[in-house]
Amino acid sequence: MFHPEKLIRKGSPKGHIKDLMVRSFLASITYSIVIIAALLFGKIIVDGAPVLFKTEAPFVDFEFLTAKNQTLHVFDDSLGNRRQLSASEYSDTSLSMRELRFIMSRLTPTRVVASQARLMAPHIQSILRSAQRSEAA
Predict the structure, then answer these.
(1) 58 and 95 co-located in one domain
(2) Is residue 108 domain-shared with residue 84, that is, in the same domain?
(3) Inside any domain, residue 4
(4) Residue 91 structural domain
(5) What is the pLDDT of residues 77-113, one digit of tens each?
(6) 122-to-5, 61, 80, 86 alpha-carbon distances in Å
(7) Residue 2, domain member (yes or no)
(8) Given the DSSP bridges, would you call strands 72-76 and 82-86 parallel, antiparallel or unpaired?
(9) What is the 3-state secondary structure (H, E, C) of 99-135?
C-alpha cells in the first residue's frame, strides 16, 4: 500500500505560488472589466434618465419609446447655418434626383455620384429656384 507520509505532504505543493499569482492576475482583469462595464451602464442610465422620464404625468415618455428610430442629419446650408434634421425631414426637403442631375449638368461637366448629389442638395436649392425662375421668364 501507500506510505502515509508520502500521501500527506507538509508545505505547499509544487507551483502553488505561481498558480496563486496567475489566478489573482486573471481575477483582477475580470473584476476590472466588470467595474468598467458597470461605470458605462451607470453613465448611460444617468445621461438617458432625463430623456426618458419627465417631471409631469405621465412620468415616462412613451412617445420617445415608441417613436421610429431615425438618423440625425447635420449639415451647413448655403448661408453657413448649421442645420439638424431627422431622416424623414431631410428626405422631404432634399431634391429629387432628376432636379439634381439638371443642376449638376449646368454646374460641371463631370459626373456626380448620387450620394454626393444628395449631400450637395441643401447647398444647391437656391440654384434650382433661380434656374426655374429663369426658365419661366
Answers:
(1) no
(2) yes
(3) no
(4) 72-136
(5) 767 778 787 777 766 666 555 566 666 666 544 444 5
(6) 88, 33, 11, 14
(7) no
(8) antiparallel
(9) HHHHHHHHHCCCCCCHHHHHHHHHHHHHHHHHHHHHH
Neighbouring CB atoms inside 10 A of 111's CB total: 9
Q: Dump pLDDT digits (tens) for 7-28.
A: 666 667 788 889 999 999 999 9
Give the count of domains, the chain.
2
CA distance 66 to 6: 71
Answer yes or no: are the C-beta atoms of 102 and 84 closer than 8 Å. Answer: no
Q: Does 124 share its domain with 77?
A: yes
pTM of the model: 0.46
Q: Left if phi > 0, otherwise alpha if psi is -120 to 50, otherwise beta: which for 26?
A: alpha
Q: How far apart are CA 79 and CA 69, in angstroms?
A: 29
